[in-house]
Design brief:
This protein has about 190 residues and is mainly alpha-helical. The protein has helices at about 15-20, 30-45, 50-60, 65-70, 75-80, 90-110, 115-120, 140-155, 160-170; strands spanning about 125-130, 175. The chain has nine helices and two strands, in the order H-H-H-H-H-H-H-E-H-H-E.
Length: about 190
């Protein structure tokens, strides 16, 4: 039987796998939340498929997305990252990965986990939109504006409202699968 998917994943096998297995699935694990946050910040201004294609390179370059290690990166490691053609070599984004890892740990200390912090914005329950077409999907919302402002206040970088909304979609805080998509009711 033919599966109906959100049209944004097209026919790229990597995009289809991401759509079918990850996008919109509620994530409560801090390590995975940080991975998506790091990838979303590097995605700013680029296409998500570009990041997906480099995801394993990012995983290797950034110590398997270990935020504790990343928080302690010194200039020598940052310099190596800036020479790594397997990732996005944007100086500000590389530096923000370190800053964000440090801010991530501070949130964990305050709230017990980053998951406790981020999911409180939706009272622990995903927002389930009823999108009929991708044209209805917002790039940001009042809620993503609020989260973005709070993250920035806490020292995060590259967490504008659009990046935050993409993170919310990716980690299942919001279900933006089209109602016609087979994943809509699964997640």
């Amino acid at each position: 039987m033919l599966k109906i998917r959100c049209p944004w994943c097209g026919d790229d096998p990597l995009y289809i796998a991401y759509h079918d297995e990850e996008w919109g699935v509620p994530v409560k694990d801090d390590a995975t939340l940080f991975e998506f946050l790091l990838l979303e910040t590097f995605q700013a201004g680029l296409s998500w498929i570009t990041i997906l294609r480099k995801r394993e390179n990012f995983r290797k370059a950034f110590d398997n997305f270990d935020y504790r290690k990343i928080a302690g990166y010194e200039q020598q490691k940052i310099d190596r990252l800036l020479q790594d053609s397997g990732i996005i070599r944007n100086k500000l984004k590389v530096h923000s990965a370190v800053t964000n890892a440090q801010a991530f740990i501070k949130i964990q200390e305050e709230f017990g986990s980053f998951s406790n912090y981020i999911w409180k914005f939706v009272a622990g329950t995903p927002i389930k939109n009823k999108l009929q077409s991708m044209a209805e999907a917002p790039a940001n919302t009042l809620l993503s504006d609020t989260i973005s402002k709070d993250l920035k206040k806490r020292g995060f970088k590259f967490v504008g409202s659009t990046v935050v909304y993409a993170h919310m979609q990716a980690t299942g805080m919001v279900n933006d699968h089209l109602v016609s998509c087979f994943r809509y009711n699964e997640v």
